Amino acid sequence: MRLFATLFFLIAFSSFSQDEGRSMKTINSNWSFKLGKKSDKVDWQRINLPHSWNKTDPFDEEKDYYRGIGRYKRKLEIDKSDNRKWFLHFEGVNQIAKFM
């Protein structure tokens, strides 16, 4: 029993030490969105994620709903001087996604 308790504490505390220094932050707010290929500076909508730009299409009377490109953009400020690795995790990207 004593061996089991010792192993349990060693495993539990070693997993805490691996995450030391790791932080998670959501970037779901303050995005801009626009339909179409052109990325000019007009007609961008301010949105928050999750977002579905065609959520009303199935309820429209017309059957010619838009199928095409939708653009999302957001500025991220990252302090490069702290020498940390940064990972972005996106959920729900549909079909094709390009990151620039």
Please provide a written account of the structure:
It is a single chain. This protein has 100 residues and is of the alpha+beta class. The protein has a domain at 26-82: Galactose-binding domain-like (Jelly Rolls). It contains 1 helix and 3 strands, in the order αβββ. The chain has one helix spanning 2-18; strands at 31-35, 45-47, 70-73. Strands 2-1-3 form a 3-stranded antiparallel sheet, with no helix packed on it. The longest helix has 17 residues, at 2-18.
Q: Helix coverage percent of residues?
A: 10-25%
Residue-averaged pLDDT, rounded? 75
What is the rounded distance between the termini?
Answer: 55 Å
Largest sheet: spatial strand order: 2-1-3
Q: Which topology of the domain at 26-82 does CATH recognise?
A: Jelly Rolls
How do the helices and strands follow one another from N- to C-terminus? HEEE
Radius of gyration: 22 Å
Unreliable spans are none
**Main sheet characteristics:** 3 strands, antiparallel
The level 1 CATH classification of the domain at 26-82 is: Mainly Beta
CATH superfamily of the domain at 26-82: Galactose-binding domain-like
Going by CATH, the architecture of the domain at 26-82 would be Sandwich
